[in-house]
Each structure stands twice: as C-alpha cells, then as structure tokens.
Description:
Elements: E1 10-14, H1 16-21, E2 29-33, H2 35-43, H3 47-56, E3 58-60, H4 65-78, H5 86-98, E4 102-103, H6 107-115, E5 120-121, E6 132-138, E7 144-145, E8 159-166
Helix pairs in contact: 4-5, 4-6
Amino acid sequence: MKDSTNEAKKTLVADTSALFNASDFPAHFDIVVPPGVVEELRRWGMDRRLDMLLASRIEVRIPLNGSLEKARKASEATGDIGRLSDTDISVVALAIELEAPAITDDYSIQNVIKSLGGKFLTMEKIGIRDVFTWEFRCSGCGKLFKEKIDECDVCGHRLRSWRARKK
C-alpha cells in the first residue's frame, strides 16, 4: 500500500455545489475556491461546515484578471455567459490558471472548461461529453440571437436557450 503523505499534492478547484454536497475529498488533493464560493455557502447557512473546511482543507484564492478575461471570452464563445454567475466564471478562471480540474455538476461550467481543453470531475451527475455552443431563440417569432437579451427586438417575447451545434 502506498503512503499518501509521500505523494505530491494535486489541486482541485471546487464550485459551490461541490462543497455543499461533498462528504470528503481525497487527502492527496488541495482544494481551491474563489471568494464567491465562500459567500454563496454562507448565504446557504453553511457557516459551521465552511469554517471547518477553511481551517483544514480549502484555500480561497482570487483568480488573476487574465484568467478571468479568458474564462469570460470562452463562456461568450460557447454562449454559456448568460448561464454563469461571476462565481462560476471565477471557478473556470482558477481551473485555467492553476491547470487543475474543477469539481462541478454545473453543465455550463463543464462546457466552458471543456471548450478550453480543461478537465472536470463530477459529484452526483454524469458530466458532459461534447462541447456545445448556444444561441438564443425568440419564443414568439423564432428569431435567433447570439447573445442573451431581455426580449426580442422584433416581437417582444422572451428568449430561450437553443443548442446551436456540437464542436
């Protein structure tokens, strides 16, 4: 049996759902999260669990501006930008910056990370297999939009996500 204390530490970037649902992470991994994950867990009343994790296993790190910009551009390119919060973008940015897998069940985070050639691990769901790009289609007249807007400029109806094509 290998002694895990002699193995090199590896890094994983976790999103909010990973910390919310996880019972434990492998001992030979360091877990990194952006500040938004901490804020979201506190809003959900997870203070005690969070304090324990922060004291022992979790490092809070702010992604560099270059990584954030790359994550935003990639999410715009896939059309996931309207589905991702600032915290989600920060998770993608840290995964890019640290060249580490992200732990997430969020399909939009997975899609953006995969589009950049990165890796992810899932907790409860089966992860995506292919990268998709998204457009927005008017629920009234059917006009397609590349970016999400509040309402169609032709008929005023709401837009819905529409899978454009597989990459």
